[in-house]
Amino acid sequence: MRDSNATVTKAAPPPGAAAFHLSINNPVVRAVLAQLGVALVVALVAWYLVGNTMDNLARLSIASGFGFLDREAGFQIGETLVEFGPQDNYATAFLVGILNTLKVSGVGILLATVLGVILGVARLSSNWLVARIAAFYVETVRNIPLLLQLFLWYGLLTEGLPGPRQALSPLPGVFLSNRGLKLPAPADDPIWAWVAAFFGLGVILTLIVAAWNAKRQAATGQRLSMLPIGLGLIIGLPLLVLLASGGGAIDMPVLQGFNFRGGMTLSPEFAALLFGLVIYTAAFIGEIVRSGILAVPKGQTEAATALGLTRGQLLRLVVLPQALRVIIPPTTSQYLNLTKNSSLAVAIGYPDFVSIANTTINQTGQAVEGVLAIMAAYLVISLSLSFLMNWYNSRVALVER
């Protein structure tokens, strides 16, 4: 028989489960209110700035919006990757500027990486002279402002080289003067499109073979040498196409009057910007590589040496693959710095995106829209580069089990 005096007790809440109370004393409620307050302040500041800007534009009778992009630009750009003339619109001019920025940034990242790895390895060299020269380079270049280095390179390339009539010609068809470096270029011949297509095909096939080779090594322990295979596919296929067609037409530079005609030009502005960015960024990458190599446990190198690996094999097969896990994250920051530092091109006359946007602002008066376009362009480029580097970092990161 059930006891009528028995009391019913509530079950205790599970460990770690706290009751939620809608009170200002609750830290969760206070945190939410604080975030809402900050968001409200930011929204009010943004509303004030936008409203003040629109009022000032209306008072000065300056039209707002991006409708000016469809208007004729009316200015010439000296260095372009696509066809552009004064009759084209501002949108096309912006495209030219973005492509010029991507060109110098892409080439600069590649060259700075190669030079940075060499510097990082050289700083750890057992040769006293090599290590001290690398250390002097790093400590000197890192402590001189990049803008001053750009002025130095630009002055050397424009004032330290002879004019076109006295141009240096180290190779047939190659001329170096204060107007830039003139090189032979592929002429308007359809065969070059086929060569480019087979070059891309060779790159794709090389990646496929490399992936298959990695799986084969994991399964059988046997690995094919990818260097001759890659060279054969990437260089051999386009070369076979070129030989089968009897060769393609070449546009050779020729001196006419006071300048060269034909070929392609590496302008002093582009060269000065590229040299400055590469030399400056490589000093930082070199220190990152050095720290990454030092982070590899000494027992790894001792074990590799005991197996009979040479110093080159030790560095390429044992040290660098493990050091990448330390090297990649800070190197990503240096890639982003190089891309953003390319905006200093405006100081030496290279037509990058900032330079072209400034010209557009001066002609149209659309300062707000021009600055917003610059910010958006560098934001997209930086986020895209960060995404690619983070993806690669996840591929080489050490996965814990």
TrEMBL record:
Organism annotation: Niveispirillum lacus
- Mind telling me what this protein is named? Amino acid ABC transporter permease
What are the BP-aspect GO terms?
Answer: amino acid transport
Q: Membrane-spanning residues where?
A: 31-50, 104-122, 134-156, 191-212, 224-250, 270-289, 371-392
- Tell me the PROSITE patterns matching this sequence: ABC_TM1
One example GO MF annotation: transmembrane transporter activity
Protein's cellular compartments: Cell inner membrane; Cell membrane
Family recorded in the similarity comment? Belongs to the binding-protein-dependent transport system permease family. HisMQ subfamily.
Against InterPro entries, the record matches this protein to: AA_ABC_transptr_permease_3TM, ArtM/GltK/GlnP/TcyL/YhdX-like, MetI-like, MetI-like_sf
Keywords assigned by UniProt? Answer: Amino-acid transport, Cell membrane, Membrane, Transmembrane, Transmembrane helix, Transport
Task: List the membrane topology term(s).
Answer: Multi-pass membrane protein
Any one Gene Ontology cellular component term annotated for this protein: ATP-binding cassette (ABC) transporter complex
Q: Which segments constitute the ABC transmembrane type-1 domain?
A: 98-389
Q: Which Pfam families match?
A: BPD_transp_1
Q: Which SUPFAM superfamilies match?
A: MetI-like
Q: What is its main location?
A: membrane
